[in-house]
Amino acid sequence: MSEFDLIQRFFTRPAPHAILGVGDDAALLQVAEGMELAVSTDMLVSGTHFLPDGDPFLLGHKTLAVNLSDLAAMGAAPRWATLALSLPQADEQWLQRFSEGFFALADKYGVELVGGDTTRGPLNLSVTIMGEVPRGKALRRSGAHVGDDIWVSGTLGEAALGLAHLQGRIALPDDARAFCLSALHQPQPRIALGLALRGIAHSAIDISDGLLADLGHILDCSNVAAELRYDRLPKPSLSSVGGNGLAELAQRCVLSGGDDYELCFTAPVSRRAEIETLATRLNQPLSRVGSIVSGHGCKVRAEDGSVMKLKESGYDHFA
Q: Which of 22, 145, 158, 319 is most solvent-facing, going by the fewest CB within 10 Å?
């Protein structure tokens, strides 16, 4: 099977909202009147971001999901994507399952694949995602204000616990294993939440490298500091992952484990009731976990108010 046969068979579909999609030297796109284009690229590398023998359907889902999460953090509506694949071989069964997982999520959010590239090499997967946001309304990292509440969506630490299980660092019981592995392999981009936060949140980011690391980007860009309450963070149930003996590992996973793809955002105290109503309307758990303060850095306080001593802040590819 040639490169062009591969593209035609597995990745060529109509793109009715593009002027020109797959099949030429470049796609032609037109952003709607009054909109800005939000663009992000994420790469998944075999052995770094996923295990090479993983289910290709789930990998197709995650390849797109991690990019959609970036649009959610910007408050942008997904529109188009390009996909670049480096493949050790043209395995038709693998490609069929991968494309099914990719397009199942693409269809859910109305994403059209409009181009990309394929080449032979180590297994690497790269998506460039494009979305639209009303002019001047994008959520940014640089907007946090002193006095803002800090919120996070969903539950933190499940994906990192799932990875720890696969790496043999923990043995999860059946019930915990199922939801932790699902969080790792099938993250759910919070698109609806990101869209709803336009005009409410002062700043936002998706949690990909761990809460402390990603909140740290908001703090740096906004020139502020933060205080978090560990007891308020949405954590996996310790009883379901083996009891108090795993408390230290669970703490690291919650604060710095990464792969959550939840949203962390800041908003004025005056919007608390509105955000709580939003959580109910979207059926999306939202937890108020701390405050933006003046200064630099982030303190995490235990339930008794003492400052916790932390060893890790998050994932860094080059650390």
A: 319
Convert the pLDDT of each residue in 305-316 to its tens digit: 999 988 766 554
Is 314 domain-assigned? no
- Do 149 and 124 fall into the same domain? no
AA letter at 211: L
Q: How far apart are CA 179 and CA 87, in angstroms?
A: 30
Q: Which residues of 232-266 are buried (b: 16+ CB within 10 A; e: fewer)?
A: ebbbbeeebbbeeebeebbbbbbbbbbbbbbbbbb
Q: Per-residue pLDDT averaged across 242-254, rounded?
A: 75
pLDDT recorded at residue 247: 74
**Residue 108 CB partners (closer than 8 Å, separation 6+):** none
Q: Is residue 319 predicted with pLDDT exceeding 80?
A: no
In a domain, residue 27? The reply is yes
DSSP string for 242-309: TSGGGHHHHHHHHHH-----EEEEEE-GGGHHHHHHHHHHHT--EEEEEEEESSSEEEEE-TTSPBPP
